[in-house]
Sequence to fold (248 residues):
Amino acid sequence: MTQQQLYRRIKKQTGRAIGDFNLIEEGDRIAVGVSGGKDSYTLLHILEELRQKAPVKFELVAVNVDSGFPGFRTEVIESYLQEQGFEYRMESTDCYETIEQKIRPGSSYCSFCARLRRGVLYRLASELGCNKIALGHHLDDFIETLLLNQFYIGTLAAMSPKLLADNGKHTVIRPLVYVEESDIIQYSRLYGFPIICCSCPVCGTVDQKRQRMKQLITSLATEIPGIRRSMIAALGNVQPRHLFNEEE
Fold:
């Protein structure tokens, strides 16, 4: 697939998600979380392309939250945002110090970090006058979360493409819900995004359950090529009558 063909496919899938779930509306000012990874760069790039030709007017502000992990290269992200002409905000925090001091034995390092970062994002969105926060979760993230919740927690739940944030003030949107991770990997390589490591001290050691789900889906895809599309479609095709219902 050529660079242009891949670009058109991701752009079409993102536009479809925006339309299906009414993710972007007239006058929106959207804080786009940019971590320095492939997903967030792709999200920012595609949303900007859509913004330039959209029938509704909306604004984008790139937001990076530095958790304070040693070695995290914020200057690489900032340089890219400057070169591309994005409005942006770089925010340094003491999340790393807080985690090291307050995390309880047996608690999830990633979950604690995510909660802290989420709080910073909500604050920044308010300070920047943004009513929405866009995150770079893609199709594979949705279906992996679905399986994780089923296998380890015993719930039928995944992510939502659009939901009211915990603070009750902002709306969190995930426009890449229809985009597969393999396409994002290829897209980020073709466009040469300056990807950097998150520098998290436990990176690669605590996400084994999600990696297991990723491997499972990849394995099943050799027998069922359309499994990812089927699973993401299932999230919007729930049949309550065929599930447990305590009221009956």
